[in-house]
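User: Could you go from structure to sequence for me? I need the amino acid at each position, not a summary. Structure tokens:
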């Protein structure tokens, strides 16, 4: 029986202990811990890595402090536009969505794209129409509204800038994701985001791009990224980890260190979580902090925020 493992992240950026209140830190840790335990229950029951990462990300999407689902940031027009992707390392199938609106859990829609269509990525009105046909759960604009996100938008508009959701540790941070290895040695990855505050012109980041922000293959590993998406696309970071394992015969730890070094070299900030088919887990990042956690076969639970 293989070693089961699950890792999750809730974003990376400028996260300083000196700027974090005890109550807020406890809330973040509670959100991460809940998602970890829900996903790990699937693996403990003999369930698939794919189901585990989906359930973990659903919990993170439903948690308003992270930039996905309910906590998604606002675009320049004051809308919530969400991206998500999921990949099954067992058979190299994947599904992704971009620009979806009012879909409660974009990660569920991404999985439906994978399983119910011949396509990989659906965007905008078409993705929303597909969601209606699949009878996924929708929510009103009010469900997605959070005051701290709206204040972020107003400040970004006032200063005429597009804001990565890493600007202040006192504010909710970034993309969410999960990677898992199940008892059969299958790996999977899932990633979900609300994008950038005050984003314009239909910007899409790495989350919806297989190989950039999300990737999974039983032959190597599963990876979910978080950070400045443009650089993760340039670095093809999620696949970069897998490629270094495949073509250089590196371990998960070695490949991840090299991929992060390359990301840093090209100017990227952030991090990623990764797991291989033996249940090894890594969670590297080059920013001041990354909301993250993991559970391994031994039952060890670890939730961290700072460097």
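Assistant: Here is the amino acid at each position, in order:
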């Amino acid at each position: 029986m293989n070693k089961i493992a699950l890792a999750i992240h809730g974003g990376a950026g400028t996260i300083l202990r000196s700027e974090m209140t005890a109550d807020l830190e406890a809330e973040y840790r509670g959100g991460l811990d809940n998602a970890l335990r829900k996903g790990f229950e699937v693996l403990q029951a003999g369930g698939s890595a794919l189901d585990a990462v989906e359930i973990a990300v659903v919990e993170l999407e439903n948690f308003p402090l992270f930039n996905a689902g309910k906590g998604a940031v606002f675009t320049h027009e004051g809308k919530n536009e969400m991206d998500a992707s999921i990949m099954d390392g067992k058979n190299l199938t994947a599904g992704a969505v971009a620009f979806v609106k009012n879909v409660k859990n974009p990660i569920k829609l991404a999985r439906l794209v994978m399983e119910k269509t011949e396509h990989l990525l659906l965007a905008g009105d078409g993705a929303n129409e597909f969601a209606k046909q699949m009878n996924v759960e929708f929510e009103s604009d009010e469900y997605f509204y959070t005051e701290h996100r709206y204040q972020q938008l107003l400040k970004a508009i006032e200063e005429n800038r597009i804001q990565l959701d890493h600007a202040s540790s006192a504010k909710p941070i970034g993309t969410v994701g999960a990677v898992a290895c199940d008892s059969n040695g299958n790996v999977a990855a899932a990633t979900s985001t609300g994008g950038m505050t005050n984003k314009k012109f239909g910007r899409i980041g790495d989350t919806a791009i297989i190989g950039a922000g999300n990737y999974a293959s039983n032959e190597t590993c599963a990876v979910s990224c978080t950070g400045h998406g443009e650089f993760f696309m340039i670095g093809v970071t999620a696949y970069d980890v897998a490629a270094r394992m495949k073509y250089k015969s590196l371990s998960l730890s070695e490949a991840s260190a090299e991929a992060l070094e390359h990301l840093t070299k090209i100017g990227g900030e952030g991090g990623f979580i990764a797991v291989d088919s033996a249940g090894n887990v890594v969670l590297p990042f080059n920013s001041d902090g990354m909301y993250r956690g993991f559970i391994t076969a031994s039952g060890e639970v670890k939730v961290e925020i700072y460097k």
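One structural detail worth keeping in mind: Confidence is low (pLDDT under 50) at residues 165-172.
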